[in-house]
Design goal:
about 250 residues; alpha/beta; TIM Barrel; 11 helices; about 15% strand; binds phosphoenolpyruvate
C-alpha cells in the first residue's frame, strides 16, 4: 500500500509563538497510525519546530530551498542549512514559487537535483492554471512539468519523491477540484510515470491533492483510487481542521 500523507503548508503564516502553540496542541492528539503527518512552517521556525516534535511522528518540512550549496544568494537557504536543523524534506515547485517568484521547470530540476544530492525527500508540486484547463491544455502542462523537472531522474530517485497535484485555480480560492477531476489527473500522472519508468515505480509514488481541501471535502477526495492524501494550505493552520483532514481516509 502507498504511504498516505497529510502535509500542511503554512506559507508565510505563524510566528514562533503560534508555531509552538500549534505543535503543543498537535502533540495532544491521537495520530492515525497509517497516515504520515507533515508540517511546513516558515524557515525561521524550522529549528524550533524540529526540536519540539523530536519524539513525535510528525515530520517537519521546508517550503523551499535554493539550488546552490552556498554563495552570494541574499535571502536564500541551502539544503545543507535545512539538514543542519534536522529538516530532511522540502516542498519544491509550489505554484506560488512558480508564479510569484518565477521559478520555472528548469530551475526546479536543479533544486530537485540538489535536494537529492543531500539525500532529502521532496514534495514536488505540479498544477495547471484556470486558462490551461479552460483551453483543455491541463494534461499537457502537467506532463511538461513532470518531464522537464523530474524525468531526468533515475528509478531509484523516485523513492524520495512525493507528487502533489495542485490545480492553481483551486489554491486558496475555496474552489476545489471535484473528486472526479482529482482522480482523473492523479491517474494521468501515475500513467505518465509508468510509461517513463515502470508501473512498479508509478504504483509506489504517493500523489497528494492540494487546493482548498477542508474537513468537509477531504473524505470524498481521499477516497479516490489514486489520491494518497493532501497538501493542505489554509486548513492546516488550525489543529482541529488539520486533524479532521488527517482522519478523513
Ligand atoms: C497550498 O498552498 O498548497 C494549498 C493547497 O492551499 P489551500 O489548501 O489553502 O488551497
Amino acid at each position: 500500500m502507498r504511504q498516505q500523507i497529510v502535509a500542511g503548508n503554512w506559507k508565510m503564516n505563524n510566528d514562533m509563538a503560534e508555531t509552538e502553540m500549534f505543535l503543543v496542541q498537535l502533540k495532544k492528539q491521537v495520530i492515525p497510525e497509517d497516515v504520515s503527518l507533515m508540517i511546513a512552517p516558515a524557515f525561521t521556525n524550522l529549528n524550533h519546530a524540529f526540536q519540539s516534535v523530536k519524539d513525535h511522528p510528525v515530520t517537519i518540512v521546508a517550503q523551499n530551498m535554493h539550488q546552490s550549496d552556498k554563495g552570494a544568494f541574499t535571502g536564500e537557504v541551502s539544503a545543507a542549512m535545512l539538514k543542519s536543523v534536522g529538516v530532511k524534506t522540502v516542498i519544491l515547485g509550489h505554484s506560488e514559487r512558480r508564479s510569484i517568484f518565477k521559478e520555472e521547470n528548469a530551475v526546479l530540476a536543479e533544486k530537485v537535483n540538489t535536494a537529492l544530492i543531500h539525500d532529502m525527500n521532496i514534495i514536488f508540486c505540479v498544477g495547471e492554471t484556470l486558462s490551461h484547463r479552460e483551453t483543455d491544455d491541463h494534461f499537457n502542462v502537467i506532463e511538461e512539468q513532470l518531464e522537464q523537472s523530474l524525468f531526468h531522474l533515475s528509478q531509484a530517485n523516485w523513492k524520495q519523491l512525493i507528487i502533489a497535484y495542485e490545480p492553481v485555480w483551486a489554491i486558496g480560492t475555496g474552489e476545489t477540484a471535484t473528486p472526479d477531476q482529482a482522480q482523473e489527473m492523479h491517474a494521468f500522472i501515475r500513467k505518465t510515470i509508468a510509461e517513463k519508468y515502470s508501473s512498479n515505480v508509478a504504483n509506489k509514488v504517493s500523489i497528494l491533492y492540494g487546493g482548498s481541501v477542508k474537513p468537509k471535502n477531504a473524505a470524498e477526495i481521499f477516497s479516490q483510487k489514486d489520491v494518497d492524501g493532501g497538501l493542505i494550505g489554509g486548513a492546516s493552520l488550525d489543529v482541529e481542521n488539520f486533524m479532521e483532514i488527517a482522519n478523513a481516509f
